[in-house]
Structures are given as structure tokens and as C-alpha cells.
Amino acid sequence: VQLQASGGGLVQTGGSLRLSCTASGSVLRIANMGWYRQAPGKQRELVARMTSDGTINYADYVKGRFTISRDNAMNTMHLQMNSLKPEDTAVYYCNAYLSTPTYQNYWGQGTLVTVSS
């Protein structure tokens, strides 16, 4: 199983980016999918998470600016990031708890988001 993240890049303050993550390989069912981020010198933290039944959790610092969505048929997840701030600069990692059929936690390789002031 692989999680492939894409969509990062350089954007100015107030700009937008859309991240995508696709799970490939022997995936039977994805329970939870989410995005985490890690800024230089800081711990990895939750950005947004979505369960298979559509329950969503956002970190307080992205509420109203970021939107997570899933395409279960394509095993794909997106993160629409609007009104980006310099403090959003980080490597963004996708995460999935999925079955192959054994349930395990998987991480993508990370995609860098840089927001310039």
C-alpha cells in the first residue's frame, strides 16, 4: 500500500492550494483519512481528519479556511486550503487507517507547503 500526496508548493499570503492524497495497492477499505503537518522544529500535528461515515475534525487554527473531502470510490482525499498564512508553512502528510484486510496506519511521503509573507 502506498499513499501518494501531491499539490504542495509556494503561495503568497492569502492564496490557496489544493492537496491530494491517493491510496494505492491492496486497499480493501479505508476507515479514516487525514492530513497532518510538521513545521521546522515542531512536532507533527493534526490538520483535518475524516472518517468513513463522513465525520470531520479540524484543528482550530484551520477552521473556516481549510476543507477536507474524500472520494471513497477513488481512495482519494483532498485538502482545499484557502486564506493561507505564513504559519501554515510546513510539510503536509496524508494519513490513512485502512485494511488490506488487516487494519494498519499508513503515512504518505509529505508535500511541502510554503506561504510567503
Task: Kindly describe this structure.
- The protein is an all-beta fold.
- It has no helices and 11 strands.
- β7 and β8 form a beta hairpin.
- It starts with a strand and ends with a strand.
The helicity comes to under 10%
First-to-last CA distance: 37 Å
Please state roughly what percent of the residues sit in beta strands, choosing from under 5%, 5-15%, 15-25%, 25-35%, 35-45% or over 45%. over 45%
Number of helices: 0
Instruction: Give me the Rg, rounded.
Output: 14 Å
Which term fits the overall shape? Answer: globular
**Low-confidence parts, pLDDT < 50 over ≥5 residues?**
none
Structural class category: mainly beta
The total beta strand count reads 11
- Give the rounded overall mean pLDDT: 96
Secondary-structure map:
Elements: E1 2-6, E2 9-12, E3 17-24, E4 29-38, E5 45-51, E6 56-58, E7 66-71, E8 76-81, E9 90-99, E10 103-107, E11 111-116
Parallel strand pairs: 2-11
Antiparallel strand pairs: 1-3, 3-8, 4-5, 4-9, 5-6, 7-8, 9-10, 9-11
What are the main properties of this structure?
11 strands; 117 residues; globular; seven-stranded mixed sheet; mainly beta
